[in-house]
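Justification of computing resources. Each target in the renewal requires a structure prediction run like the one illustrated here; the chain below, 208 residues long, is used simply to show the kind of job we budget for.
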Amino acid sequence: MARSTPRISPSADQGQTRIFVLALLLAALAGWNLNAWLVPVEESGIAPAIQPETPDPWAQSREQRRLLEVQEDAPEQVAQFAGAPIVNARPDTVSVRFGICGGGARVTCVVDGDTIWLRGQKIRIADIDTPEVSSPRCPAELERGRRATQRMVELLNAGPFTLEPGARAQDRYGRALFVVTRGGASVGGALVDEGLAVWYGNGRPDWC
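Resulting C-alpha coordinates:
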Protein backbone atom coordinates (compact mmCIF):
# COMPACT_ATOMS: atom_id res chain seq x y z
CA MET A 1 0.00 0.00 0.00
CA ALA A 2 1.52 3.36 -1.07
CA ARG A 3 2.10 6.08 1.53
CA SER A 4 0.36 9.35 1.08
CA THR A 5 2.52 12.55 1.22
CA PRO A 6 1.41 14.78 4.08
CA ARG A 7 0.09 18.15 2.91
CA ILE A 8 0.92 21.44 4.60
CA SER A 9 -2.12 23.55 5.12
CA PRO A 10 -2.25 27.06 3.67
CA SER A 11 -2.38 28.53 7.16
CA ALA A 12 0.91 26.85 8.03
CA ASP A 13 2.51 28.25 4.86
CA GLN A 14 1.39 31.77 5.81
CA GLY A 15 2.77 31.37 9.33
CA GLN A 16 6.17 30.27 8.05
CA THR A 17 6.20 33.16 5.58
CA ARG A 18 5.49 35.66 8.35
CA ILE A 19 8.26 34.24 10.51
CA PHE A 20 10.67 34.45 7.59
CA VAL A 21 9.75 38.09 6.87
CA LEU A 22 10.12 39.07 10.54
CA ALA A 23 13.50 37.37 10.65
CA LEU A 24 14.64 39.38 7.62
CA LEU A 25 13.43 42.62 9.20
CA LEU A 26 15.20 41.90 12.47
CA ALA A 27 18.40 41.02 10.60
CA ALA A 28 18.19 44.27 8.62
CA LEU A 29 17.67 46.35 11.78
CA ALA A 30 20.51 44.56 13.53
CA GLY A 31 22.83 45.20 10.58
CA TRP A 32 21.85 48.91 10.45
CA ASN A 33 22.88 49.59 14.08
CA LEU A 34 25.52 46.89 14.40
CA ASN A 35 28.45 49.35 14.19
CA ALA A 36 26.91 51.60 16.85
CA TRP A 37 26.35 48.59 19.16
CA LEU A 38 29.78 47.03 18.75
CA VAL A 39 32.07 50.13 18.43
CA PRO A 40 31.93 52.91 21.08
CA VAL A 41 31.63 56.47 19.81
CA GLU A 42 35.09 57.38 21.11
CA GLU A 43 36.75 54.48 19.24
CA SER A 44 34.83 54.94 16.03
CA GLY A 45 36.05 58.52 15.70
CA ILE A 46 32.53 59.75 14.98
CA ALA A 47 31.77 62.77 17.13
CA PRO A 48 28.26 63.00 18.52
CA ALA A 49 26.13 65.78 17.20
CA ILE A 50 26.40 68.92 19.34
CA GLN A 51 23.05 70.18 20.39
CA PRO A 52 22.85 73.97 19.99
CA GLU A 53 22.32 75.91 23.19
CA THR A 54 18.85 77.23 23.67
CA PRO A 55 19.02 81.04 23.44
CA ASP A 56 17.94 82.99 26.51
CA PRO A 57 14.95 85.09 25.38
CA TRP A 58 15.40 87.49 28.30
CA ALA A 59 19.14 88.14 27.95
CA GLN A 60 18.71 91.30 25.83
CA SER A 61 16.01 92.63 28.15
CA ARG A 62 18.20 92.14 31.21
CA GLU A 63 21.14 93.88 29.51
CA GLN A 64 18.97 96.86 28.53
CA ARG A 65 17.71 97.16 32.10
CA ARG A 66 21.30 97.02 33.41
CA LEU A 67 22.29 99.88 31.10
CA LEU A 68 19.30 101.94 32.18
CA GLU A 69 20.11 101.38 35.86
CA VAL A 70 23.62 102.69 35.25
CA GLN A 71 22.13 105.98 34.05
CA GLU A 72 19.66 106.38 36.91
CA ASP A 73 20.44 108.82 39.73
CA ALA A 74 20.22 106.45 42.68
CA PRO A 75 19.23 108.33 45.87
CA GLU A 76 21.89 106.58 47.94
CA GLN A 77 24.55 107.69 45.47
CA VAL A 78 23.38 111.29 45.69
CA ALA A 79 23.47 111.11 49.48
CA GLN A 80 26.99 109.66 49.36
CA PHE A 81 28.34 112.31 46.99
CA ALA A 82 26.55 115.27 48.60
CA GLY A 83 28.79 115.40 51.68
CA ALA A 84 32.26 114.85 50.19
CA PRO A 85 34.23 114.38 46.98
CA ILE A 86 33.66 111.05 45.29
CA VAL A 87 37.07 109.45 45.76
CA ASN A 88 38.33 108.86 49.30
CA ALA A 89 36.98 112.22 50.54
CA ARG A 90 40.40 113.82 49.88
CA PRO A 91 41.21 116.89 47.76
CA ASP A 92 42.48 116.39 44.21
CA THR A 93 41.88 112.64 44.12
CA VAL A 94 39.44 112.43 41.21
CA SER A 95 41.44 111.61 38.09
CA VAL A 96 39.73 109.86 35.19
CA ARG A 97 39.56 110.32 31.43
CA PHE A 98 36.50 112.01 29.96
CA GLY A 99 35.03 112.04 26.49
CA ILE A 100 31.89 113.63 25.07
CA CYS A 101 28.73 111.68 25.89
CA GLY A 102 27.08 109.85 23.02
CA GLY A 103 24.35 107.26 22.70
CA GLY A 104 24.06 104.28 25.01
CA ALA A 105 25.08 104.05 28.64
CA ARG A 106 26.74 107.10 30.17
CA VAL A 107 29.36 106.36 32.80
CA THR A 108 32.16 108.96 32.61
CA CYS A 109 31.67 111.67 30.00
CA VAL A 110 30.74 115.32 29.43
CA VAL A 111 27.17 116.17 28.38
CA ASP A 112 27.76 119.89 27.93
CA GLY A 113 29.79 122.66 29.53
CA ASP A 114 28.05 122.39 32.92
CA THR A 115 26.84 118.76 33.09
CA ILE A 116 28.96 115.63 33.37
CA TRP A 117 28.70 111.95 34.23
CA LEU A 118 31.29 110.53 36.60
CA ARG A 119 31.35 106.75 37.23
CA GLY A 120 27.63 106.45 36.59
CA GLN A 121 26.63 109.57 38.56
CA LYS A 122 25.10 112.57 36.79
CA ILE A 123 26.55 115.83 38.10
CA ARG A 124 25.59 119.47 37.50
CA ILE A 125 28.55 121.84 37.86
CA ALA A 126 26.96 124.20 40.32
CA ASP A 127 28.79 127.50 39.86
CA ILE A 128 28.51 128.08 36.09
CA ASP A 129 25.90 128.17 33.34
CA THR A 130 26.88 127.34 29.75
CA PRO A 131 25.11 127.45 26.34
CA GLU A 132 22.71 124.64 25.51
CA VAL A 133 23.56 121.93 23.03
CA SER A 134 20.45 119.74 23.38
CA SER A 135 17.90 122.54 22.89
CA PRO A 136 19.71 125.66 21.66
CA ARG A 137 17.68 128.70 20.69
CA CYS A 138 19.86 129.54 17.70
CA PRO A 139 22.85 128.22 15.72
CA ALA A 140 25.18 130.60 17.56
CA GLU A 141 24.24 129.12 20.93
CA LEU A 142 24.72 125.59 19.59
CA GLU A 143 28.17 126.44 18.23
CA ARG A 144 29.27 128.07 21.49
CA GLY A 145 27.74 125.22 23.51
CA ARG A 146 29.81 122.69 21.57
CA ARG A 147 32.95 124.72 22.22
CA ALA A 148 32.12 124.83 25.94
CA THR A 149 31.58 121.06 25.95
CA GLN A 150 34.92 120.34 24.30
CA ARG A 151 36.69 122.81 26.56
CA MET A 152 35.26 121.15 29.68
CA VAL A 153 36.56 117.78 28.45
CA GLU A 154 40.03 119.32 28.10
CA LEU A 155 39.90 120.92 31.55
CA LEU A 156 38.77 117.75 33.33
CA ASN A 157 41.43 115.68 31.58
CA ALA A 158 44.17 118.16 32.52
CA GLY A 159 44.74 116.50 35.90
CA PRO A 160 43.17 115.51 39.25
CA PHE A 161 40.34 117.69 40.50
CA THR A 162 38.07 118.03 43.50
CA LEU A 163 34.28 117.96 43.72
CA GLU A 164 33.08 120.37 46.40
CA PRO A 165 29.42 120.14 47.48
CA GLY A 166 27.14 122.93 46.36
CA ALA A 167 24.59 124.76 48.49
CA ARG A 168 22.07 121.99 47.73
CA ALA A 169 22.58 118.26 47.18
CA GLN A 170 20.47 118.13 44.01
CA ASP A 171 18.83 120.38 41.48
CA ARG A 172 15.22 120.04 40.35
CA TYR A 173 16.25 117.50 37.70
CA GLY A 174 17.79 115.16 40.27
CA ARG A 175 21.39 115.94 39.32
CA ALA A 176 23.97 116.05 42.11
CA LEU A 177 25.37 119.57 42.58
CA PHE A 178 29.13 120.07 42.88
CA VAL A 179 31.68 122.78 42.18
CA VAL A 180 34.69 121.41 40.29
CA THR A 181 37.95 122.86 41.59
CA ARG A 182 41.65 122.32 41.02
CA GLY A 183 44.19 123.84 43.36
CA GLY A 184 41.42 125.80 45.08
CA ALA A 185 40.26 127.52 41.87
CA SER A 186 37.03 126.81 40.02
CA VAL A 187 37.55 124.82 36.83
CA GLY A 188 34.39 126.39 35.43
CA GLY A 189 35.97 129.81 35.90
CA ALA A 190 38.15 129.11 32.88
CA LEU A 191 35.01 128.87 30.73
CA VAL A 192 33.77 132.17 32.16
CA ASP A 193 37.07 133.84 31.31
CA GLU A 194 36.87 132.48 27.75
CA GLY A 195 33.30 133.68 27.18
CA LEU A 196 31.89 130.13 27.12
CA ALA A 197 30.02 130.36 30.44
CA VAL A 198 28.65 132.79 33.03
CA TRP A 199 28.65 132.47 36.79
CA TYR A 200 25.47 130.73 37.94
CA GLY A 201 22.90 133.09 39.48
CA ASN A 202 23.70 136.05 37.26
CA GLY A 203 20.71 135.46 35.02
CA ARG A 204 20.43 133.50 31.82
CA PRO A 205 22.46 135.16 29.11
CA ASP A 206 21.34 135.62 25.54
CA TRP A 207 23.82 133.43 23.67
CA CYS A 208 22.17 134.39 20.39
